[in-house]
């Protein structure tokens, strides 16, 4: 990797990152083969919440931070490896910290509890300053109840059983969409934590995201790389419940917004299509009046926001402007000129997805959904749960 190769254009790297030249890193003793990794990680973490939170507190979710010491990073990695090798882990209660890491991790739990104290009544969403542990799906009764309840809630709000209007194919696709929307909402709700131990357990169980991110950073710490930060964000169930229809991804180049997309690009929400102009105008106004001045040091980035039913906008996060970050309804290849230069366009899904979105739910969970919600899926087989029941004859 060439240094800072992740940045798509000159001026895309935040100004506060541009001092770490390859020569400077070599002077620090960073091995040649790790200079590209350093540059990539530094570029991406330059958009983390700690780089902008102080300036934008009133426009985002209340947050607290805990910076991890090197021994804490290594303990999380080591304990995560041990847990991963134990196939009997189905809940937080199944996890007993090893003698090797217990003292370090129990002290870390105390730090987490202190950071979360201000959110006791609402709880928190926990993440690193890089990514969240949203790959954790616990196979236990509590998680099952939360997920099934969320799917039932979504279906009852948006899909009428036995309705005889509309095209069968469209109804089948909408059933799959709302089931997937509810499933993802349920997964989000399983990440809702109220104490430091539960927060730590999520970090330990996130094999594909937290573990991988800490593993990369751990190789750089001995050369002076910034220590990772655990972020606690006040829980907002409206956001968790409505993210499919209310979250948008926006693109900024040289401090000018060029495009925005529905974040959940597979879901069709007619109300969004009806309000397209208003939503687009509000997003542009939010950027022009808030982010444009507050984030001049970043210049080129991607930001995600929550757009409430009352038109309130909350900033969720910033991401690096690169193909590693998903483009949603845009294509990094086909829409490259538009993403870099505009003019501004808001893209929304205007018809239901043609594919069956139930297929995106793991099969074991599809079987559970069919069993638990027979009113919606009573005519579906376990082997093929992704198709809507036939309409009832009058």
What does this structure look like?
This protein has 394 residues and is an alpha+beta fold. It has helices at 22-27, 32-45, 53-56, 70-84, 102-116, 141-158, 168-189, 196-205, 210-218, 237-246, 270-274, 276-294, 336-341, 363-372, 374-377, and strands spanning 63-67, 124-128, 192-193, 229-234, 247-253, 256-262, 301-307, 313-319, 345-347. The strands form 2 sheets. Strands 8-7-5-6-9 form a 5-stranded mixed β-sheet. Mean pLDDT is 86; it is low at 1-19 and 380-394.
Structural class designation: alpha+beta
Question: What is the H/E order?
Answer: HHHEHHEHHEHHEHEEHHEEHEHH
Please state the overall shape, judged from the principal axes of the Cα atoms: globular
**Sheet bearing the most strands, described?**
5 strands, mixed
Helix content: 40-55%
Radius of gyration: 22 Å
Strand content: 5-15%
Q: Which stretches of 5+ consecutive residues score pLDDT under 50?
A: 1-19, 380-394
Q: What is the strand tally?
A: 9
What is the oligomeric state here?
A: single chain
Mean pLDDT: 86
Distance between the termini: 65 Å
- Total helical elements: 15
Biggest sheet strand line-up: 8-7-5-6-9
Question: Any key phrases for this structure?
Answer:
single chain; 394 residues; disordered C terminus; globular; alpha+beta; five-stranded mixed β-sheet; four-stranded antiparallel β-sheet
